[in-house]
Amino acid sequence: MARILITGGSTGIGKALVMRLLSHGHQVVATSRQPISQMKQAGLDWATLDLQEQSSIDAFIKSKLWDRSFDGIVNNAGFGLIAPIESAYLQEIREQFEANYFGTIQVTQKAMDHFREQGFGTVMVNTSIGGRIAFPYFGYYNATKHALEATFESLWYECLKSNIRIKIIEPGFTQTQFATHGMRRSVANALPLHSKQIEWLSETMKSGTTGSNPDTIAKVMETALFDQTDRLRYTAGKHANILLTLRRLLPEAWFRALITKTVLLRR
What we know:
By secondary structure, the protein is an alpha/beta fold.
């Protein structure tokens, strides 16, 4: 039986992973910005963590929950800013990076201290295929995921010849509440053309018809958590492998044409 820490465990993929691990007899500490009392059950503890608030991160890192051994940590918390590159406010961009990148790195550094001291552990991060592909109007969100991909790949090298495993999960589009709870639209004024595209993208994501079930992603994450090999990346869900393969094999112009056709509203 393992003890696993999951950030962003109240909805979507995080919640699916929490429930899957509990059903298999593991102990879970999950975090969210607000405690989720209705999910409390045997083997599950909640901790408050808001990755945009330094005081919340400091309190979390100093909390007594680290006094006991963790076998793994899953960096899943974050949000997505949907905005044209040209008009997003700098403060919005900073908030995107604070939550998705800097907050995640602070928790990871604490986990690494913990795992170095105990001599083993698994550090996982959920980046999405957006960590290797950029999509229109998700550029700043994708930038945080690209940064996480680079950071955790570097960390993989730094953990060689140790019993610390580094795992990157790259889900495709998922049927979660991300479009309604995990997505923030820029409050900056956008050109009419951008507004129309963003509205269409938001409604498409909210429909949830194009993505995989969160439990499909959680199943891959559970497998990766307990994989003792040095494998780094795991794709998960519908279209993820196909898109990444096409990104690798197609000429650059062809792939951009594919994304333009499938992601942008036809004019």
